From TrEMBL:
Gene3D superfamilies reported for this sequence: Cytochrome P450
Family note: Belongs to the cytochrome P450 family.
Protein's recorded name: Cytochrome P450
Metal-binding recorded as keyword: yes
Pfam families for the chain: p450 (PF00067)
InterPro entries linked: Cyt_P450 (IPR001128), Cyt_P450_B (IPR002397), Cyt_P450_CS (IPR017972), Cyt_P450_sf (IPR036396)
Protein's organism: Archangium lansingense
């Protein structure tokens, strides 16, 4: 019998790692009630999760399970979520390759490296503004504006629309915990859908040198993206292009403040910033779990049977603390090598924006640590609150005194 557990309690959201450690030991396959997909099988061990990324018995698109009903087709699911089925995270070959090929050129390491100067300029301006305040919310004043500005400029989102869009998306993601939450977010989802369609029409009539124009005009073997595919791609790129980096910077800063000896080591050895960012990705887990997989057939795993058609979720945050792979996994070590974390996933669905996230996280943390040697939490740690999103792991706010 596969055990069942509720991973959405405030206590577990605040610190899921003791629970994950127990599950890895006692219940490597655990049933969790997912708000969208019902009872889902969560994998908790590193090796099982890594294998799942390339397991042909698992599909990313539920429509590839013959005779299976898609829960996203329920009447109470907002149309934006139904359109989201067409994104490249929720597709299998050959559709996945077609969609990924349309955007991968914008995120190559070379193209991202060309953005370094722009990122450093934005970081400098944001920290100049932060320095004038006694206390800051690192998320609202720094960790959010940086990636939101970068991805919005890449996508061609007008400046006056950016914060409104972020608030809409944040409210949407934080309320994906029940059908009631979905229904309450219907107006928000409708507004986002209308916003995305407005962007598409804008770039159809007024093309610019940006990624959105490239997507609108793109042709791949004589085929263009449908409007649903465009909406889904915009949603995915804007979401993944800033929400996860916000969490990398926020969770990473908190982890360094919780481990002052590691923070001091980074200040004294700035050349460690590369390995520090990798460790903060492993330790802080900006993405708790990626998009779901679906069993094409009965799968026998760790003494359990995952029935055909079942939803399978991969707990990346558990894999990144697996004691069978990482020595002292609950210890932050900015010199950790090797560091085979799975924060960006693996295989063909490896995060397309990983080079950009690394660049932004590296520059942001490097400048923050160097510029404010006296920074500390402005509230007791127990007052910090974590967001309710079931897929992303991030704080609601991170109040700091910078001097």
């Amino acid at each position: 019998m596969t055990p069942e557990i509720n991973l959405k309690t405030p206590e577990i959201r605040a610190n899921p790692y003791p629970t994950y450690a127990r599950l890895r030991k006692e219940s490597p396959v655990v049933l969790v009630k997912h708000p969208l997909f019902g009872k889902s099988y969560y994998l908790t061990r590193y090796n099982d999760i890594v294998s799942s990324f390339t397991d042909s018995r698992l599909a990313n698109d539920r429509r590839n399970i013959e005779g299976d009903k898609d829960p996203l087709d329920r009447w109470w699911v907002p149309s934006l979520l139904r359109a989201f089925k067409n994104n490249m995270l929720a597709t299998d070959a050959p559709d996945h390759r077609r969609l990924r090929d349309l955007v991968h050129k914008a995120f190559t390491p070379r193209r991202v490296e060309e953005m370094k100067q722009a990122v450093e300029k934005i970081v400098g301006e944001l920290l100049d503004a932060a320095q004038k305040k006694q206390t800051v919310d690192l998320l609202a004043d720094f960790a959010l504006p940086l990636p939101l500005t970068v991805i919005s400029e890449m996508m061609g989102v007008p400046e006056e629309d950016r914060l409104t869009f972020h608030r809409q998306m944040g409210g949407f993601l934080d309320n994906l915990s029940s059908p009631v939450g979905f229904l309450l977010q219907t107006p928000n989802a409708f507004n986002m859908l209308r916003f995305f369609r407005k962007l598409i029409r804008l770039r159809q009539t007024d093309p610019r040198d940006d990624l959105l124009t490239a997507l609108v005009l793109a042709e791949e073997q004589g085929d263009r993206l449908s409007e649903d595919e465009l909406v889904s791609m915009i949603f995915l790129l804007l979401l993944a292009g800033h929400e996860t980096t916000v969490n990398l910077i926020g969770n990473g800063t908190l982890a360094l403040l919780q481990h002052p000896e590691q923070l001091q080591k980074l200040r004294e050895n700035p050349e460690l910033i590369g390995s520090a960012v990798e460790e903060l990705l492993r330790y802080g887990n900006p993405v708790d779990q990626p998009s779901p997989r679906f069993a094409r057939e009965d799968i026998h795993l760790e003494g359990h049977v995952i029935p055909r058609g079942s939803t399978v979720m991969l707990l990346l945050a558990s894999a990144n603390r697996d004691e069978s792979v990482f020595e002292n996994p609950d210890t932050l070590d900015i010199t950790r090598k090797p560091n085979r974390h799975v924060a960006f996933g693996m295989g063909v669905h490896y995060c397309l924006g990983a080079p950009l996230a690394r660049l932004e996280g590296t520059i942001a943390l490097q400048h923050l640590v160097r510029r404010f040697p006296q920074m500390k939490l402005a509230v007791p740690e127990q007052q910090l609150r974590w967001r309710g999103s079931i897929g992303l792991r991030g704080l609601k706010a991170l109040p700091l005194r910078l001097s």
